[in-house]
Amino acid sequence: MDKGAGTEELTEIRHEVFRRHRPDPEPRTVEIADPPRPWREASDYRAAVARWRGQRVDAWEAAIAGAVGEGETGAFLVWGDPSLYESTLAVVQEIAARGALAFELEVIPGVSAVHALTARHRIPLNRVGRAVQITPARLLAEGLPKGVDDVVVMLDAHAIFTTIPPEGIDIYWGAYLGMPDEILRDGPLDEMAPEIARLREEARACKGWIFDTYLLRRR
Ligand SMILES: C[S@@+](CC[C@H](N)C(=O)[O-])C[C@H]1O[C@@H](n2cnc3c(N)ncnc32)[C@H](O)[C@@H]1O
Fold first, then answer.
1. Which protein residue's CA is at the shortest distance from atom 22 of ligand 1?
2. Which residues contact 18 (CB under 8 A, 6 or more apart)?
3. pTM exceeds 0.90, yes or no
């Protein structure tokens, strides 16, 4: 999936995966342009999102029909693991439900940003016998949920960790995990939040995009 200008590096990394792991015979690749997401300001945002979803399903269906012949195997490369904050499965299942194309679907698990993060920090995800919550940052506006001591935060556009009361909390942060520009920081949230916020802004300004994930752990 080509998500437009500024994300060429993400496409290039996928080609690198092929070069390293499927060099011979090199698979045929098909790049599908993702239709631009509707603006939040669109007059009827819900209708605009529904239209956008439909355009994506159309584009993906046409790509499968055009590129994968009878008896052949096609694959969608998914970032991280396909089960986590990912629409690929939903789109492909919608194509199957339309019924114009008949195919069997297999899901191959990947390394999610969550597991890349814990591996790079060499920490377990959970504490003994305890629960872990994985959440998009926008659900943390009110701070850490009651009764949850370990929260993995993804999709943070606004450095929400700088607004959370930091007492008794450690942060384990990683940006561009598993990539050449990987950055890691960890420590008490009150000490680390300003530095991590600055690093994020510098990295975003330098590369034009950022992917970061962090674990907030109550001491
Ligand atoms: C649309 S979600 C996709 C998650 C992906 N399916 C996974 O399993 O990691 C995108 C979010 O995942 C996290 N993410 C994905 N790749 C990352 C990476 N290499 N380093 C740090 N965070 C990453 C970021 O929080 C980003 O905002």
1. 212
2. 26, 27, 29
3. yes
